[in-house]
Write a structure and sequence with these properties.
Radius of gyration: 22 Å
Structural class: mainly alpha
Number of strands: 0
Order of helices and strands: HHHHH
Strand content: under 5%
Largest sheet: none
Helix content: over 70%
Shape: elongated
Distance between the termini: 18 Å
Length: 144
C-alpha cells in the first residue's frame, strides 16, 4: 500500500496536477487520466500481492508438513499426507502460473510503453519514475 501511495503522489507531482488544482486549471481529462492510472496500478499491485500471498502460503504449508514429519515416526501415514499436499500445491501452482503470466505480460508491456513515451513523447526518465517504482514491486513477485 505504501508503494502505491508513493507512486500516486509522485505521479501527481510529476504531472503538475498539484499546481493545476491550486490554480483551478485542472480539466476533466486530467482527472480521468489519473483515475484510470490509479485504478489499473492498484489492480496490478493487488495481483502481485496476491501472488506473493499464495507463494507464502505454499511455503508455510510445506514447512508445517516437514515439522510434522519430524515429530511423527510412522512414515506410511506421511506418504498419504504428502500426496494430498502435493495435489493441493499442484492446483494452487496452476493458478499461480496464470497470474505470473499476466504479471509478466503487463510488466513487459508497461516497460515498452514507458520506453516509447520517453523516446517518442519527449518525456525525461524522471517522468516515468512512478511506473518504474511500481514495476520493480511487481517484478519482485517473480523472484519469490
Amino acid at each position: 500500500l505504501a508503494a502505491w501511495i508513493f507512486a500516486m503522489i509522485e505521479r501527481l507531482r510529476r504531472s503538475g496536477a498539484f499546481t493545476s488544482a491550486v490554480s483551478g486549471e485542472i480539466g476533466a481529462l486530467d482527472v480521468l487520466q489519473f483515475t484510470a492510472w490509479a485504478t489499473t496500478s492498484a489492480q496490478l499491485l493487488g495481483l502481485a500481492f496476491c501472488c506473493n500471498y499464495i507463494c507464502g502460503a505454499q511455503i508455510g504449508v510445506i514447512d508445517v508438513f516437514c515439522q510434522g514429519m519430524m515429530e511423527r515416526t510412522p512414515i506410511i501415514m506421511a506418504v498419504h499426507e504428502w500426496n494430498l499436499l502435493q495435489a493441493v500445491l499442484r492446483r494452487a501452482s496452476k493458478t499461480l502460473e496464470l497470474i505470473l503470466l499476466v504479471l509478466q505480460a503487463v510488466t513487459l508491456l508497461t516497460a515498452l510503453l514507458a520506453a516509447l513515451d520517453v523516446t517518442q513523447g519527449g518525456r525525461s526518465l524522471v517522468d516515468i519514475l512512478p511506473v518504474a517504482f511500481l514495476m520493480s514491486y511487481v517484478t519482485q513477485a517473480f523472484f519469490r
